[in-house]
Amino acid sequence: MSDAEQTADEPTLEPVYRTLGKPFRARADAEMDAIGWTIFLGMLILFLPLLPVILLVWAITKVLDAVAPTEE
User: Residue 23 contacts by C-beta under 8 Å, 6 or more apart in sequence?
Assistant: First the structure.
């Protein structure tokens, strides 16, 4: 098989994009990354004090399910 022949899994033509604008080149978006980390840390600060209450409710429901299982 020669180098000029195409195999079945290789495309024969490059895709054509019909657009009036210049092609967009992706780049790192540091501004949105900083905003995302700020929101994450803010939520962590807000929900961290609630963690013991959430764990207590979860543990109580698990104990109640083990003691008196529902008929399903």
Answer: 17
Q: Is 56 exposed, middle or buried (0-12, 13-18, 19+ CB in 10 A)?
A: exposed
Instruction: Find the angle CA(19)-CA(24)-CA(27) to the nearest 5 degrees.
Output: 170
pTM, whole model, 2 decimals? 0.43
Integer Cα distance of 15 and 28 in angstroms: 25
Q: How far lies 23's CA from each of 2, 5, 30, 56, in Å?
A: 35, 31, 21, 54
> Which tens digits make up the pLDDT trace of 20-33?
777 777 777 888 89
Residue-level length of the chain: 72
